Amino acid sequence: MTTDPRARSFDAAAARYAAARPSYPQTLLDAVESLTGRPLSGARVADIGAGTGLGTVLLDGRGARVVAVEPGDGMAAEFRRSLPSVPLVRGDGDRLPLADASFDLLTYAQAWHWTDPSRSVPEALRVLRPGGALALWWNDSDASVGWIAGQDARMRRFLGADDSPYDPEVRFRRLPAGLHFGNRRLPWSRRVPMDVHLANISSYSDFLVRGETAVDAFLACEREQLAACFPDGTVEERYVVSLSVAIR
Description:
By secondary structure, the protein is of the alpha/beta class. It has a domain of 170 residues: 3-Layer(aba) Sandwich (Rossmann fold), CATH 3.40.50.150. 38% of the residues lie in helices and 25% in strands. It contains 10 helices and 7 strands. Strands 3-2-1-4-5-7-6 form a 7-stranded mixed beta sheet. Helix 5 links the parallel strand 4 and strand 5. Helix 1 crosses helix 8 and helix 8 packs antiparallel against helix 10. The longest helix is centred in the C-terminal third of the chain and has 18 residues. It is globular.
């Protein structure tokens, strides 16, 4: 995978990642089944860049026969604590430690952007059986919601990023060439305590590589900003999952 230090920043915050990061809606799994044309139950699935297992546990719950692939020490340790019965092998999307033509489905939950497509695409095609599928998905905050747009703008300023609002269609525009993807966008939401919401932000890679003092100060200001929107201390986070599926 990429040598970007942000890619391995999660290892030091794996427990926080597992506790605070959002999962995915069941409609995502329905859409994967629709786009692949087959049920997940009984399918041989490799979840690549599985992290702490947020996507893996859902696939396992649908009856898929899942193997997880994860490069990071901290994330792999957290995965083994939460999903001890699911096989986990160490590796990454650019060098899959999997046999040729051995899987019906490869999934990359929040993980494809850490790969080098010039390597990860051939690797995916090597490992997939004929007719197998590659599924890529991301959770993005729904910036059509006013308070989320405001928070996104404050985060961009803090990180020194481009001030233009995030365009969710960018996920589809950046898909690897040469594969024919079917795409879906799936809205969903969750309600969490303020502390969980702020811990989720602090688990973003851009925040993990910033100084702790600066991040703590930013989060304290966010707590004050959000208290006016959510006086009971419960934040309603709204997301859109961008899903892309290509058949081998």
